[in-house]
Description:
The structure is a single chain. This protein has helices at residues 2-8, 20-39, 45-65, 68-93, 108-127, 132-152, 155-174, 180-211, 227-239, 248-251, 255-265, 292-300, 302-325, 332-347, 359-366, 368-371; strands spanning 278-279, 283-284. Helix content is 66%, strand content 1%. The longest helix has 32 residues, at 180-211. The protein has a two-stranded antiparallel ribbon. It is mostly helical. The protein is globular, with a radius of gyration of 22 Å.
Amino acid sequence: MFGILLCSIEREVKPVRWSKPITVLWFMFGILRLSSGIVTSIEFIPLACIWLIAFPSIFLVWNNRKDYNVLFKSLYHGFVYPSIAFFCISILFAPIGTEAYTGITVNPNSLGQHLVAIVALVVARFLYAANKKEQIENGIIFGVIVSFAFFSRSRTATVTIAGTFLAGMLVNIIFKKKPFRQTLADLIIIIAGSGLICVSLWGINTLSVKYLPNFQHYEQKTETENPKKILNNYIDRIEGNDKHESGIENYSSGRTGIWEEVIRKLNIKGHPSRDHIITVRNGDVGNNAHNVFLQFAYDHGVFAGILFSVLYIVALFKCFLLVKEKKHSAGIGEEILLVQIAYLGLSLFTSTNLPFLYETSFVYYFTYAILFSDDSFWDKSEISVSRKGK
């Protein structure tokens, strides 16, 4: 974080006007995190200090710079380009077999979380591209993201990716007044292209794993599958037919039971990580609430969970206002709105409370570099309105 701060400083850093609703909620939540670190468990103090000091310091620097297009271009380069390398290595060395695909990770959920981290950045540059080349490049990357979500059978990733893309299309229609027929054409192209990319990746994987060393997680079986069998397994997973028993708790992989137990144990001061959550179906799941809003309430107390939830709602509302009023440089308002939506899609089912473990959270927190700014800042004469390249 200190390195990011130093590299971000371009000119003298001066006091700026911050949005009161956003900053008050941010710092109140941070104070509760710090308090729980003092009262409940010292382990919470480092991240509380990062929340209260490190992130706002970086936001202050970018509020002075004002060229947020550069910030999100850097985020794009820092997350999407390594992801391209990850995709290539996975498809070449990790066979698509009878189990949910993990790539070179060891868990399909980890793969899904990685996909969600970049989907908003890619979708924004596909739908709001400055030029045709940028749109084509990001359309291909999005097709790869869809393919990996399909191979992994991740329901959370599937819903989040589809929801993010649908939200981007609605923004085009409602706020950017893009003709419905043109938007529908984009949808057809992306569906057809994703299907073609998916089949192509399967073919490349089938061929490459025959001749290249394989990365094989010990729990995976080695048999490869044909596309039809992969599709059937994916449908079974989405419909919940891969479960041994019916019911919402089994369909949710025990999440509803975990949430009920978390809610039952909520208190004012929170719980240390050693205070585990135990359910009938899943047994001991550590202190993982599988929902970031419940996680913060469980860790730091019910008021902290409420504050974080309100912070998210206020931030999402402000994103809508920025898009509606076009108070932003080209495409940035839409981009941070999509990041917010992707974060919500994942965080409803995953405890994305650690920004250095969950890339989605790290990208999400940087949207506040824009949201911290007071509304009066958004004068188009003061900001860069061009986005050249990616």
